[in-house]
């Protein structure tokens, strides 16, 4: 079995490659530049948003891929950047898949932010009408919608995994946890105080390795074509808990921490909690890694200790 992972060098892509490799698949990664963790896998250096659909189809079809995973696209600072790296990429990918004489399963990574802000206490189900408000969330929804439209039209065999916020090893540098980890490391190195502004928010977080396992399951599940499937823990966890677990992992002295409340500033609102019943039923999949262990693993991995 062959899988082609788009965005293979990113936070999610590297874990997806590892999960498939552990199950004996022939793994082929695609990204703009290679990375050491892809040693032993096939690799094609390609800017997917710039590449012609025919070029992408050649990578997917020679030899034929059984599964294609789209974990590509960065966060982006502007709507133009997001449109290029996500929406343009997906449009080229859809055209490329339509050129193939067979239909590999496409697993597309979406985001919980596609739902948009919701009142506290809301359980986010896949049938909820999304109302995103930020450029990031709107573009992510457009990419997922493009994949779903092609699948429902019979052009593709595809499933969209709408993933919660992620924790665990190798977080993207733009993420809240990665930025916090840098600040903690700097304060430790210089012996100074750590000033933290912690928002009164609760969000669904899931370990990136659990997400990778969901991707593997979705690649072979028989009844998910054309569907959105939520991937999270099904819990709304206080942001302050994540902060505490990171400080604990770093053994940062509590008497050197100055905390203050802060307004919510993120790509989502102050509450997310996913209903993961569909993932349990159809993939079948459930998260296995606890969030405290996930945050500790993130810190250990960043400091050269196996996660």
UniProtKB/TrEMBL annotation:
<dbReference type="Pfam" id="PF01370">
    <property type="entry name" value="Epimerase"/>
</dbReference>
<protein>
    <submittedName>
        <fullName>Nucleoside-diphosphate-sugar epimerase</fullName>
    </submittedName>
</protein>
<dbReference type="InterPro" id="IPR050177">
    <property type="entry name" value="Lipid_A_modif_metabolic_enz"/>
</dbReference>
<dbReference type="InterPro" id="IPR036291">
    <property type="entry name" value="NAD(P)-bd_dom_sf"/>
</dbReference>
<feature type="domain" description="NAD-dependent epimerase/dehydratase">
    <location>
        <begin position="3"/>
        <end position="232"/>
    </location>
</feature>
<dbReference type="InterPro" id="IPR001509">
    <property type="entry name" value="Epimerase_deHydtase"/>
</dbReference>
